[in-house]
Amino acid sequence: MIERRLYIRQLEAFVDKPFIKVITGIRRSGKSSVLLLLREDLLSKGVESEQIIYINFESFTFSELQKTAKLYEYVKANIARGKKTYLLLDEIQEVEAWEKCVNSLLVDLDVDIYLTGSNSHLLSSELATFLAGRYVEISVFTLSFAEYLQFQAHYFPEKKQHTKDAFVPYLRAGGFPVIHTGDYNEETAYKIVQDIYASVILRDTVQRYNIRDVELLERIVRYAFDNIGHTFSGKNVADYFKSQQRKIDINTVYNYLYALEGAFVLYRVPRYDLKGREMLKTQEKFYLGDVSLLYATMGYKDRLISGILENIVFLELKRRGYTVFVGKWDVREIDFIAEKQGKKIYVQVAYRIENEETVEREFKPLLEIKDQFPKFVVTMDDFWKESVEGVQHVHISDFLLQDF
């Protein structure tokens, strides 16, 4: 396995701390691998193998443990005597009333608990009820561009590319780790992602939220995917369906969008008025858990390239722990305002800077912001001005690898 240090570092900060570590993310993003990498990390630091209990609840081997009482008794019978036991529970949402069991294990035994799950709402609501203040959430995303380069170097060392050239295959394949462990052609890769998508929709959306109209859910997914990089609201979706002679209740739209967020198919990004210094309640943007979901369900569309590039930048900002907003400055839009620990960066994303009109649209909103935080215009241009009055213009492959 290739070590994903970004997540191991986050987990290491909480090892032996009195918090339940909750690892969340879309299916097949690598949560199970992160748990196994953590196991290796613990062993390398002197933890004995009998101190570690790893259970994958999607494995038939542990199907009997999907009942709360049986899981509790199993762990109690197998803990290391006189030493701390590290409990690694993979896809915990498969266990009935799991939160009660986890709470009891934490209270009754000397255990350090790590959970993974594929539905954020399910985990957060139940943890908030039973374990308020006693858990931390660590989000796992599909491969970053830097991780993609690591995978390429490991599995295909003969394929040596300049980073700018390597970005295009990453753009077209997306970041699901399984895609990058084999030499798949585009058609096969998208078929794999289709299967991942189907599993996410069925298990983490339809079943978890008791959605009856699956066809309507799929239509909403396609609307969101087709509007990547554009602001819209639940009312926009309802009005669109009305124009297609299909009436839909606006609350149903919001409920379905909420379910898709819970399964990490979509991320909702609110708008922030920089001048008014207030969060706006309408016209949010939605980005995908991985751009390959778009290709697998609707095919690659050149007309969506700007939105796809925005999506890749958004996920990179989230990986790095930023809280992300869409910015509003008068009538202009700033694609991303990203905040972390009192610091900000501002990012505009475009496919190419082709003329002075594009320069005006992308650079002017950033030039009007007079603070000293970094400001970037990110594109796929090979040649252009490096900066304009302090606003840095960078190729997206450089931005994704940059320590900003």
Rounded to the nearest angstrom, the radius of gyration is 22 Å
- Considering DSSP H and I runs of 4 or more, what fraction of the residues is helical? 40-55%
Number of DSSP helices? 15
End-to-end gap: 28 Å
Please name the CATH topology of the domain at 5-139.
Answer: Rossmann fold
Percent of residues in beta strands: 15-25%
Level-1 CATH class name of the domain at 5-139: Alpha Beta
Low-confidence stretches: none
The CATH architecture term of the domain at 5-139 is: 3-Layer(aba) Sandwich
**Sequence of secondary-structure elements:** HEHEHEHEHEHHHHEHHEEHHEEEHEEEH
Mean pLDDT value: 92
Q: Which descriptor suits the 3D outline? A: globular
What does this structure look like?
Among the domains are: 5-139, 3-Layer(aba) Sandwich (Rossmann fold), CATH 3.40.50; 301-404, Trna Endonuclease, Chain: A, domain 1 (3-Layer(aba) Sandwich). Helix content is 44%, strand content 21%. It has 15 helices and 14 strands. Strands 6-8-7-9-10-11-12-14-13 form a 9-stranded mixed β-sheet, sandwiched between helices. It has a 5-stranded parallel β-sheet with strand order 2-3-4-1-5, sandwiched between helices. Strand 7 and strand 8 (278-288) form a beta hairpin. Helix 3 runs parallel beside helix 4. The model has no long low-confidence stretch (mean pLDDT 92).
Question: What key attributes describe this structure?
Answer:
404 residues, alpha/beta, Trna Endonuclease, Chain: A, domain 1, 9-stranded mixed sheet, 14 strands
Q: What's the SSE blueprint?
A:
Layout: H1 5-12, E1 20-24, H2 31-44, E2 52-56, H3 68-78, E3 85-90, H4 98-108, E4 111-117, H5 120-130, E5 135-139, H6 145-155, H7 163-173, H8 186-209, H9 214-226, E6 231-232, H10 234-243, H11 250-262, E7 266-273, E8 278-288, H12 292-298, H13 305-319, E9 323-329, E10 332-340, E11 343-349, H14 356-367, E12 375-379, E13 387-388, E14 391-395, H15 396-401
Parallel strand pairs: 1-4, 1-5, 2-3, 3-4, 7-9, 11-12, 12-14
Antiparallel strand pairs: 6-8, 7-8, 9-10, 10-11, 13-14
Helix pairs in contact: 1-2, 3-4, 8-12, 10-11
